[in-house]
Specification:
Layout lengths: L17 H22 L4 H5 L1 H10 L6 E4 L6 H6 L37 H15 L7 E6 L6 H11 L5 E7 L5 H15 L2 H15 L4 H27 L3 E7 L3 H13 L3 E7 L6
Parallel strand pairs: 1-2, 2-3, 3-5, 4-5
Helix pairs in contact: 1-3, 3-10, 5-6, 7-9, 8-9
Length: 285
């Protein structure tokens, strides 16, 4: 049985079963809580990104594939999986591990930054540089950014540039509060206008009246409303990101390793910009 103690390099995860990966996620949370409650640090973001971090290292091949974390608050699990577990108790202490990512600290830290919203542009620059150096390079570059950081202007500059380039590039949104709501609100209002158009509402009311007269009609009406809400959610997310030039995948359950692995493998196969929307719970555990 593989345990966290036996993971000295991210490649060690590839021999684990999915059940073992789930157990390792529990061990990472326990280690983080034990250490950070003594040393201080950013606990909530990392606790919410445990399964996502495991899945990323399970699917991709760091440091050949580059994982670019925005800010670094969510990267404590990444540190534990990249050969720093024996020093994790020194995090944020003098002479100890950095509270952020550091290229001097590990070959698996592709990017170090103190400000938010920088990961997408940095990762895109790395992706372009790799293709210029070797057009046949098939390594993947992945930017992992939180929903708060995604509201920064630099993040949208990066998205705008990435969507215009025909190169493999993956953006993973670690969404724990839906801070992108203002950005998708315009699309939501547009769909609301469509739904309240008199031609639509008359037809909707006629159909609802017929359904309610049928056996189990109220159940059919309720199922119809749920489908409509789900369809609206699906359409406005997909439309917005695909207008930017990305293939949109998601939303994906961010604490289900099986679902995460499947989604990341799908993103890995796509030869172009991909936006993977992962929904997590900040501070889980």
């Amino acid at each position: 049985m593989t345990t966290l103690d036996s993971i000295q390099d991210p490649s060690d995860l590839k021999s684990c079963s999915l059940n073992e990966l789930e157990q390792i996620s529990d061990q990472i949370r326990a280690e983080m809580i034990d250490v950070v409650t003594q040393t201080g640090g950013h606990l909530g973001a990392g606790l919410g990104a445990v399964e996502l971090t495991i899945a990323l290292h399970y699917v991709f091949d760091s440091p050949n594939d580059l994982l670019v974390w925005d800010v670094g608050h969510q990267a404590y699990p990444h540190k534990l999986l990249t050969g720093r577990q024996d020093r994790f108790h020194t995090i944020r202490q003098e002479g100890g591990l950095s509270g952020f990512l550091s290229r001097d600290e590990s070959i698996h830290d592709a990017f170090g930054a103190g400000h938010a919203s920088t990961a997408i542009s940095a990762a895109l620059g790395m992706a372009v540089a790799k293709r210029l150096k070797n057009p046949k390079d098939d390594d993947r570059i992945v930017a992992i950014i939180g929903d708060g950081a995604l509201t920064g202007g630099m993040a949208f500059e990066g998205l705008n540039n990435a969507g215009n380039l025909d190169i493999p590039f993956i953006v993973v949104l670690n969404d724990n509060e839906m801070s992108i709501a203002p950005n998708v609100g315009a699309m939501s209002k547009y769909l609301d206008r469509v739904r309240t158009d008199p031609r639509y509402t008359r037809g909707r009311d006629d159909v609802q009246a017929v359904l309610e007269r049928l056996p189990q009609g109220e159940l059919l009406v309720e199922l119809g409303k749920r489908w409509k809400d789900s369809f609206k959610e699906f359409v406005y997310h997909r439309m917005m990101w695909e207008e930017l030039g990305f293939t949109y995948l998601g939303p994906v359950a961010g604490h289900d390793i099986r679902e995460l692995v499947a989604a990341l493998k799908q993103a890995q196969r796509i030869d172009g910009p991909v936006f993977l929307h992962v929904v997590t719970e900040k501070g889980k555990g």
